[in-house]
Amino acid sequence: MHIYILVHKGAGSSRGTKVLGKLLDVCSKKxxxxxxxxxxxKGHAISLxxxxxxxxxxxxxxxxxxxxxxxxxxxAINGLQSISSKTPIAYLSAGTGNDFNRAVKIQTEPEPFLDxxxxxxxxxxxxxxxxxxxxxxxxxxxxxxxxxxxDSLIVHLSSTKSSKALLNKIGLSKLSYLxxxxxxxxxxxxxxxxxxxxxxxxxxxxxxxxxxxNHPYLGSGIKLDPLSSQNNHEIGLVIAxxxxxxxxxxxxxxxxxxxxxxxxxxxxxxxxxxxxxxILRDPQYMQxxxxxxxxxxxxxxxxxxxxxxxxxY
Length: 313
Prior knowledge:
Layout lengths: L1 E6 L3 H19 L3 E6 L5 H13 L5 E7 L1 H12 L7 E5 L5 H6 L5 H10 L4 E10 L5 E4 L2 E5 H11 L2 H7 L3 H15 L3 E7 L2 E14 L21 E7 L3 H14 L9 E6 L1 E6 L3 E5 L2 E6 L2 E11 L4
Helix pairs in contact: 2-3, 6-8, 7-8
Protein name: Lipid kinase YtlR
Family: Belongs to the diacylglycerol/lipid kinase family.
EC number: 2.7.1.-
């Protein structure tokens, strides 16, 4: 067997390098050939994985492995989806948040991961979110979530503040996220939005957060949407609106304690469907799998699609 490895060495404060080293040691022990492709800049995984796809050419004795964080997996899947590739992905997490791995519960240690991969005869299908701009027709994909407003501001703060690196290094990435939740509440701007679900329009005003979810987790294990789960044939949409400081603090406490925030107030609405049309009436930043997108009055359609995937349990 021949393993093609796409790796982001800097993922998880350079944990990607350590995970790669361990996996190569296991490959050597098991006499498995390994070719390594290293990402060098943001977006590089997209072109690299397309090159790997051309080399694999549907050969059942060749397997594709992605090592990195959720952002690396996001780029890899977008790269394959954009060329309509049927090549399955195997994923070995090395990031800080690891929300995808937390939701899917696949192997995280190189040796049992590789054992599962080489013993698997058939890949499965992973449900992902396909989102289409109804302004320009562009199509992209999300593995975990996409969101607007408060959600994207948290991502922006988390990715730019130096405190994140320190907290991640000492294993407190969840604390880092919660710190930026509080900071984002001080800086956020409210917005309005229309959601069309099964032909029915829902209008929301004074929104601070709107998040399209593919599983419960957002921000290093925070259960934003506890009713969602991976591969449940449904997209979740969580909308927080008309939130003042006392309500925010009560919701935050419930969110951290037992993820019961959806039950304690009418200010948080959760919708579930296989397709949503979302129309923002005020410009907002968007985050997709933890990646910042420019500010715009987004008009998008979200629906489920599938990615071939090796479930390495």
